[in-house]
Design goal:
The complex is a heterodimer of chains A (497) and B (465). Chain A is α/β, with parallel strands linked by helices and 497 residues long. In chain A, strands 13-19-18-17-14-16-15 form a 7-stranded mixed sheet, with helices on both faces. The longest helix of chain A has 21 residues. The relative contact order of chain A is 0.09. About 9% of the residues of chain A have low confidence. The two termini of chain B are 34 Å apart. In chain B, helix 7 packs across helix 9. Chain B is globular and about 75 Å long. In chain B, the strands form 6 sheets. Chain B has a 5-stranded mixed sheet. In chain B, strands 12-11-10-14 form a 4-stranded antiparallel sheet. Helices cover 37% and strands 20% of the residues of chain B. In chain B, strand 11 and strand 12 form a beta hairpin. The chains are: A alpha/beta (497), B alpha+beta (465).
Chain lengths: 497, 465
Amino acid sequence: MSSAVVVRAGVYHDSVTLMRVSRALSDLPGMDVALVAMATELNLAMARDLGFDPPPAGPADLLVALRGQDVAAAERELDRLLSALSSARGSSGSSSYGLAGAEGPPPRTTRSAAARAGEDAGVALISVPGEHVLPEAVDAVEAGLDVMIFSDGVPVWQEVLLKRLAAEHGVLVMGPDCGTAVIAGVGLGFANVLRPGPVGVVAASGTGAQQVTSLLDLAGVGVRHVLGVGGRDLSREVGGLSAVRALRLLDEDPATELIVLVSKPPDPEVARAVQEVVESLRTPVVPALTGRDDLTDAAERVLRALGTPVPAWPSWPAPARRPPKPGAVRGLYAGGTLCAEAAAIAASGPGAASASGAAPGSWSGSESGSEAGAGTGSGEASGRGSGEFVDFGDDAYTRGRAHPLIDPALRLDALARVGPGEVALLDVVLGHGADPDPAASLAPAVARCPAAAVVVALVGTEGDPQGLHRQAAAFREAGASVFVSNAQAARYARDLR
Amino acid sequence: MTLLSGPPHVVTAGVDLLREALDAQAVPTTPVDWRPPLPGTAGALARVLADPRRRAANERAVHRLTSSRPLLVGVRRASELLDLPQPMFLHAGPPLDWERASGPMRGALIGAMLLEGYALAEEDARARLESGAVRLEPCHHHRTVGPMAGVVSPSMWMFEVRDDVHEGVAYCSLNEGLGRVLRYGAYGPEVLDRLGWMDRVLGPVLSAAVELAGPIDLRALAAQALQMGDELHNRNRAATSLLLRELAPYVVNAAPGHAAEVLRFVGGNDHFFLNAAMAAAKVSADAARDVPGSSLVVAMARNGTDFGVQVSGLGDRWFTGPAGVPDGLYLGAYGPADANPDIGDSTITETAGLGGFAMAAAPAIVRFVGGEVADAVAATRSMYEITLAEHPAYQIPALGFRGTPVGIDVTLVARTGLLPVVNTGIAGRVAGTGQVGAGLVSPPVEAFTSALLALAESALDPFDQ
């Protein structure tokens, strides 16, 4: 056993890339510890906790801490992985300038990249850490690009500023904290592979939109565009600036016949303003208000509006391993909206189809208390005496680590700690950007999970790179019940005995 | 093309996995090689980027910088052009006193004392300078720039350069040649003799010749020289030849008796044009000053102790850091231990899109500054990342006649961590030594971060109506 800790000054890679590199090195035979990360205070402290003595370094330097039987081999592998990454990055840059064969250094700002892409560029996809988003997003807007901001942790004043600037420049800002978008069939961020079709979606909730569109896809209805707007867009501060713009864009799109608006119940004043816009559109709008009506209901309303029969949503229930304590559901979620929906259902009485009394599909009904139990905000919430729901995708859990759709570590750990009398309920979201094979890590954890039963809400389509049925089979084999409808999964978990 | 009309080409910044997901869908991407900004600048960057004046202010400032048209209109004595109450000298870089002055700066000041007759001997000069009896002010505070020590005293002859677009004017002294010269801190008899000849012969003859010739378009000369292998800071051979070609007939007409020695002197000094290029750059950069909200750099200058920058939106304030020691090639037996920290106002050329920023135009000098041709091309290319514009007149043939990168934006320096590339001569550390080499130097990061923090403090709140 030997160990090495070195700092490579000025070498930068994003945290997700480094997590994957660390994981690849950890998987080498005889490797005990492999930490490859930017030398932030957090990561330096982690290295010290692991017994390393890192030299002085800053967040712009790469920290490599290795312990195992063949550290030299691990370093060689690290070099190989990093150089493969650099050449992949370099080769996709394009430039028309220069001495023959000289490509020039890659662009260092969105401004520069937009200038190099020239007329071709249409959209900027920004996923740098939240505190660094503004300059890149301003660059994109000023270059006339529509922008998707995947990052969370962007201050709300910056969001308002960006969306006002976007209005001046005639572009759309999707996000911040926009996890999914589909533009003319191209998925940005976490996005399902959807068949093309007449539906357009405006979404203030990423996983909410993924649930609705995946169900539509399963029912044979296609979706051409999903325009995310970010979870705060319909708040009083932001005022629905992007939602209104996205609604108008879809209304002008000749291929869009029906618009679905997925959101938490908006601020009442914003709701009135949006309602006015909705009424002025030629295209009908079906609202899907999470927390007020469930997403599966919303998808079914869309199908009825299009005159398409509502199918029986695929499900593969499995019996409980032993009788659970009634209603003791432990929700371990990656998607915030899915978490809130499941928590609300688990908290409601058996047989209640909807978590609140408001009429489904209405925009501006009275604010009900149905949002209690949602896992947004603090990231952790208790249902009414019915177990505990955690949204591992919340900012509180993603600071300094990748989203749980990419990095399963926290949920693997949580699965191992579910009580023997509880029902574990978790979502697995497929699509581009997400873990290429979530069952590979989660299914064995499901099989080992000490819970009385495990229920999986599997959000995805057969066209997704992971394959819906392949993933379903793996979780069933591990002993879980699998549902494509999160609402049905939550009801099943709640009512298991 | 509107957002929804077809699959987009995507500019990506951040998590590489998300770009890979686009690759998997065969969507074309242009990835940003993004890194965190300079430490401690994230908050200030947000405030400056949010300043509602920034974009228009920078457009206006850089347009004024690139649209100026510097013309050489005269050669006159400093005492005629500048307010220099005796005893007072101008010097290169940000403000400085004798106590903090480096060897070559002290040498040049002593030389100026002797030249002007303010002191009869070195010891006397040194004592008077030490006592604070002589006022020292930056050239930049007087519409003037000076190479290396940049010392300007009343009797010196100056290029007078006017910008007929923005009506500005700027001055720079005449170049003494290489080797042991005042601007490198040498003040021996041969230095003073040469300055005496320049005072008696070169100045008056050039003055008369320029008057006969009429205004000479320095921007046009610089543009041609860039296409002949100059970058107008460390290589001025082509530009000097072009200027000589313009002036020669008028020199002969103005002073047939002195024409041969004047033309021989100018022709024998490859850097003769540098001082004219500096005045041209100064008048252009000054046109971009004082645009409220602009983060454009309007001056970079070194006094041998500090490296300072000034920013359009921040008036006459200097933001400084310690001047670095250049990395380059040394003359004869000199080495890095003999080198003084970076000195001179000649970084005004980089400020205006020449010098290090135009390195790709001057493959011949890369050996002088140590490196390969590819390094010169890479240096220029990297400067596009921190500049606001491409110069409409200054073009680089090897880059497909692309305009040189021009208009350093403090926010882009902080975001990319890329510092301006500066070509420079290297002065000897000990007063009186002269030039010991030439090379490249990196400005201190804190000059730019402190300018950024000051911009953030003066930024307007975007939500204040």
